[in-house]
Amino acid sequence: MIYLKNLLFQEKFHSRWLILVIDLMVVLLSLWTSLYFKNRLQFDPISLYYMMFYCANAVLVFMIMKIHTCIIRYSNTRDMMRILITVLASNITFLLLYNLFFTFYLKIDVRGLVDVLLINFFITSSMLMCMRIIIKDVFKFIEATSYKVEKENVLIYGSNEPSILIKNALEAQKGFMLNVQGFIDNGVDRVSKIIEQKRVYPIKSIESLKKRFDIKSLLITAEDIKVDGKREAVEKCIELGIKVIVVPSSDQWINGKPNLNQFQDLKIEDLLERKPIKICNEHILGEIKGKRILITGAAGSIGSELVRQVLMYNPEFVVLCDRAETPLHDIQMEIEDGLYGNRTRIFIADIQNTGRINTLFNTYRPQIVFHAAAYKHVPMMENNPTEAILTNVWGTKNLADISIEYKVEKFVMISTDKAVRPTNIMGASKRIAEMYIQSLNNLLFEDHFFNSDPAKGNQTRFITTRFGNVLGSNGSVIPRFKAQIEKGGPVTVTHPDITRYFMTIPEAVQLVLEAEVMGKGGEIFLFDMGEPVKIADLAANMIKMAGLVPGKDIQIVYTGLRPGEKLYEELLNAEEEVIPTYNKDIKISKNIPVSYTKINNLIKDLLELNLHNEVDLMVSKMKTILPDYISNNSQYEKLDIKLIDKHMVN
User: Fold this and answer.
1) Which of 89, 203, 417, 614 is the most buried (most CB within 10 A)?
2) 418 an active-site residue?
3) Which of 410, 418, 430, 621 is flagged as catalytic?
């Protein structure tokens, strides 16, 4: 079989000119057959001229349409359609030339020409298509019998054009040891239909198909997927131990063919995704285009994505500020390798350093500031509260005050749901920062304080955005779970009932940008985080996605809540109300901001305690500023008891 395959399907044997000759022979045979049906083989010299002229015309049309250049064993429905068009064009051009040449110049009348051409169209097109189908099937048969390697049986989600392209690509390339057994679709109009010789099955059939064909994987195309149907199919496959593979869209294929390295295992982010968030790109473009933008924390998860997305809206330039040298260098290299390298400025600085931040503002005069620099890890900040205060409170205050001095147009602070009824140092520090940012918005500053015109007051509009956990961010549970699974477990979860809100980094940044457009000043924007996710379920699904069984192959171990950790997060305080916006995914928290004088004095006292390293007094001060700050599973719970006793005495 291998010898026969090499003989018949080597590239030299497969010359386009040989295909053209074979096609011409088919044309001659078809024309002869057509004449037979019409004239009962009553040939004469005129009929011979007729055939010669038709073949010459056919060769010209076939060469123009290039049907002989296609590799027959890769023929598809488009190639078949091209054959129909080519044969039709050949007959039409011959008819026109016949009327011009034979009838007008030679005065020869060949009766029944239209009838012959009609019969010839059906015979020629049918024979050319059948020839290609037979050759393709013969090649597949020889290919299948030449190699004894067993292919893995797979299903493809969806039955639209992208899914069909994947199926054809898998069958055309011998490097893919995958055998498509059918399509999975949730569309009632497609189920039980046959597409490209493969049946379309409903999602509920996945379990029976696994048993019948020993299905190993489900391929999901990366375009035109209905989230609900995909989620249902994916969850079914995960439950049955079927691997889920994401195939890139066809426009990302190399030389028009998918590469095995482009196939990726399904990520837990895909399983948790919601319906796409819609934002108004025109509004964002009008706000950012041509502006000077500063992004603090530019090397972090949110900050780096802010850099990527802001650059797409054609700012004058973007200043990337961070104190982490290596991550900042990495994002710089990424940007310089792209289209926007000349629109970035790198500035290494700590937001606590007043002199350095003044230099930044004096040099680049930013018009919009996105403040993403912060300490965010709850247990680490619980053990290092002084640093949480210095960065999250003093650093934010320092940056905001300098923004007012340099008349920044808008200042957007990235906050967290952990600032709501905080139970830890990190959340409390972010809430105090929120309060200071809100207090600045309508303040009239004295001339000596910021060296600005008192009549004009504060020209900077301060905006806060608040959302929960982002998928794939540095230090999030997903990379940790993945590493634990790769090591063979166990996967550690703090509590069986702990839940968290999740959002992808790109969609969080999209909402930050739209909130910046909406913001008039003083608002706290809340993002729709969807439904909370149970972390234990998340861990179990990740184990299943790795083809393993939770509790059997990989154990899930509960380690207890970490210092300062909540069982669940909130986006609103109990007394807060929300106002809807034109974007259903963004709402505004309606609360009464504290006065600037009050919060400024409280922060000064807090920083004074921080300076002298009076940790317990400092945390007590935070609890005084935030009456709803009650420590949870933390060494600072003792301070809550003291405050309660103090209030009782008073």
Assistant:
1) 417
2) yes
3) 418
